[in-house]
Each structure stands twice: as structure tokens, then as C-alpha cells.
Amino acid sequence: MSVLYALFVLLVSVLLLVRVFCPYVVYDVLFVLKGVRVAMRMRTFRSSSPCYSILDCFLDAVKKHPEKKFVVFEGRSYTYSEADQLSSKAARVLLQHTELQEGDTVALFLGNEPNFVWIWLALCKLGCTAALLNSNIRAKSLLHCFTCCGAKTLITGADLQEAVEEVLPVLKQQEVRVFQLGENRLPKAAVINHERVWLASFLQRMSGVRTDDVIYVYLPLYHSAGFLMGLTGAIERGITVVLKRKFSASQFWNDCRKYNVTVIQYIGEIMRYLCNTPKTDSDRVHNVRLALGNGLRADTWAEFLQRFGDVRICECYGATEGNVGLVNYMGKIGAVGRANSVLKVTQGLK
């Protein structure tokens, strides 16, 4: 009996010491295990021939749960099966009305709408590279983007027709094909290969997004945050995307309640905008359990939690072309990430 008691005291003492001197050890272990699983998957993807792409992941999701909602947009929902059919239809139209060949680069000049997703998937199916253009750029900046990406085909929407017509004479001189759908600092282009797409897409998995979650994507799809961390990350998880044309502080929580959103993204001052909205009795009436993003100030972080309830915030640090990424998986207010022992070794952090 005395031996068991001594072992019990020893165990409690060790746990107390760990809690005092290594308070995040459990978080570290769980995060490293997730990282190992991701690294093993990446190794498998690299060794496959041809490489396993995000398109392959999408097609596997279509087979696994064809009737599951993939995109919800302005009250209309599209299943994974419907998205596959619509993207295949778009691919056939592009083949019939353009001179696209495998390996060509195509510029997408579209806002946040389902057509963006279908056309991107269609281009993937055709073996073409998609250049995602900021839908807010005009004139000189728009022309600069064509020079950077080397595209000879532009796909745009009716809502951006005026912007395209403004530069149409120059585009014609460059023999750029404009394909329109039914509906002072120059931008900098970034080349994203399949490995980079996967690394960014795995952020949702590393942050704790589950396969039954619903993510709210209102950040622009032409940006890596909305496209990689949001859309392709959702494909990797096989979850539902509630797509919004643009951010609206006044409609944010109503949308979350209406569509049963459980995961939200943020960037920059988005959370401060939400905190600045008038307080209501329903501030904590929602199912959002996780928020992931970057650029959240410590004071806004604390205010957001106090007002909107127990939402796990996963602050991240990284850049599209950077070589280091950090994740604040412990939920420590104000921290942009945690450099555990494994990261210090593998990424050379100090």
C-alpha cells in the first residue's frame, strides 16, 4: 500500500512539475503527431506518379460523399457531385470555344462566386495553370498581371466587363483571348506549386478542423488566405464551404447562424470590425467553435472571446512564398505561433 501511495505521490509531483515548467507539453505532443501524419501524407503524394493533387483529393471526395454539400452560396447549395458535373461542363465549354492546351496558363478575373470554383476545377481537369487575379485591380495593374503570369486567355464575369473593356485594346494587341461568363503599386505574382498548395491546405487539419465542420469563406478567393487556407483546405477535409461575395460585419453572425457555420477565417482587422458592431442579446448564439487566421491583436482577441463566447482561436504566421510557418495551437492570447523543440530543429528556429 505504501508503495502505491509513493508512486501516486511521485506521479502527481511529476505532473505538477511538468505543468509548471512545461505547460504546453501536451499541446506540443499532439501538434507534433499531427505534423508527422501530414509529413507522411506529403511523402506519399510526392512518390505517386503522377503526383496526387488537390484535384485528385476533390474527385475522391466526390466518390466518398457525392451528396454532401460542398458550396453554399446565397441560399443555393451545390453538392460535391454537382460541383464535379458543373466543372466538367465548364471544361468542355472551354475546349469548344478556346484554343486551350495542357500546360497553358489561364487568368481568372472573377469575384467570390461558385463560377470561380467550377472554372478553377475545370482548368485543373484540363491540365492548365490558373493565374488568380485580384478582381479589384484595374488598368495598368491589370495589364501588369498578364505580363507576369504569361496568360493568353482571360476568363471574367459580366460584373467585371467594364474593367476588361478598359484594357481590351492592349489585350488584343497582345493576342489575349477574353472569355466572358454569363454573369500605384503594381501587384506581385507568386508561383504556387502542388507542394505549396498542400502545405497551406493542411493548415485546417493542423488547426483541428473536423470532417463534419462548415467553414465560412468570405475572404477573396484570388488571395492565398481565401483560396488555400479556405477553399483547398476545405477540399482536403471534405467539408462544406459557405461562400460569401465579400465580408459584411452586419451580416456575419446571421450568416453563421443561418448556415450552421462552425469554423471561421479572419485576417487583419476583421475581428475588430466584429467587435465594433452594436452588442445584441444573440452575440453568443452561434455554433462557431474555431477561428483561424492571422493579424489578430491581443486586445481585440480578449474582447472577442469575452463578447462572443468560447471560440478557439488559432493564430498563424506565414507567407505565400515564405519558408517558415507557425501555428498558435495552444490558444495563448497575443502569440502568433509556438516554436516547439521539433520546429526549432526542422525549421532552424531559435
Automatic annotation (TrEMBL):
It comes from the Eukaryota. InterPro entries: AMP-dep_synth/lig_dom, ANL_N_sf. One of its GO terms (molecular function) is long-chain fatty acid-CoA ligase activity. Residues 60-173, 187-338 form the AMP-dependent synthetase/ligase domain. One of its GO terms (cellular component) is endoplasmic reticulum membrane. Keywords: Ligase, Membrane, Transmembrane, Transmembrane helix. The keyword Ligase applies. Belongs to the ATP-dependent AMP-binding enzyme family. PANTHER family: LONG-CHAIN FATTY ACID TRANSPORT PROTEIN (PTHR43107), LONG-CHAIN FATTY ACID TRANSPORT PROTEIN 2 (PTHR43107:SF4). This is Long-chain-fatty-acid--CoA ligase. It comes from Bagarius yarrelli.
